[in-house]
Description:
This protein is of the alpha+beta class. It is built from 7 helices and 9 strands; from the N terminus they run ββααααβαββαββαββ. It has a 5-stranded mixed beta sheet with strand order 4-6-7-9-8. Strand 8 and strand 9 form a beta hairpin. Helix 1 packs antiparallel against helix 2.
Amino acid sequence: xxxxxxxxxxxxxxxxxxxxxxxxxxxxxxxxxxxxxxxxxxxxxxxxxxxxxxxxxxxxxxxxxxxxxxxxxxxxxxxxxxxxxxxxxxxxxxxxxxxxxxxxxxxxxxxxxxxxxxxxxxxxxxxxxxxxxxxxxxxxxxxxxxxxxxxxxxxxxxxxxxxxxxxxxxxxxxxxxxxxxxxxxxxxxxxxxxxxxxxxxxxxxxxxxxxxxxxxxxxxxxxxxxxxxxxxxxxxxxxxxxxxxxxxxxxxxxxxxxxxxxxxxxxxxxxxxxxxxxxxxxxxxxxxxxxxxxxxxxxxxxxxxxxxxxxxxxxxxxxxxxxxxxxxxxxxxxxxxxxxxxxxxxxxxxxxxxxxxxxxxxxxxxxxxxxxxx
Length: 374
């Protein structure tokens, strides 16, 4: 039977020892250097510690029992004093061991509780000091907690930027739309086809932005519904080239296709067409007049590679590492800054990868790698 699928289309595997289900790869917040899946070292440690405490308690009880027994049989003098000292010694040693163990656990756990309370109040800067000593299970718990909160802090910052950028992107078409409608109502502009078409364009711009946000949210949550089927990627790329031929021609840009014939992969053709459309639209926009945009379909080590190459101005080095972030775009870009973020999520939802290479002044190369089979 095929393995069950977890969030984001990632396969799950069963632990043969515990029958628990674990993802094939660790989540993003899992600390580096720690094995995956967890090996339950913490449970083993706690069981051993419990056995130590029980042993000490039993020794103390044995000492007390010995004292009671010697008292019962009437033993006096040195033997009685030895029994009393032994019993008290057992109790003292047990108390010291339990106090040391409670201190090792109590301090870090108290800090964890305080940090968790701060996180509950919305303070994602809370961290617990990581010590080089103490039980391994507690140290790993602190490291994992800090990593998880760091991820939450990054997500919160990203959410705030997303809200700010979304409101900014929606404000422009809303302002234009409102101005046009008010001008027509006040009689400044006639309600003719020209001005109504401009208003309609702004509503379409907002609808496209909202749909992009919806697609991005579903893809990031791993709930985007895909409809994979055997797809000839070479034919799909040729269709994209034909669709952009007229637009590119008006800009004085040519479109060339280099494709192999057996490039069949099990993908959602609509979503992959959306990815390639976005890459080609960007390439045509930035390609200088008289140059050509090249579309390549080739065999790749992990499946099939689809590349879009332009000879435009290239991508600034400071923007390159953040190119697939939401709303990150160059100053010259006229888009919303969501296209490449959506393309990345759609490709990864298929189990593929997308990367870019660019040199300022020499153009850019975007390549999508897709597995042949789902």
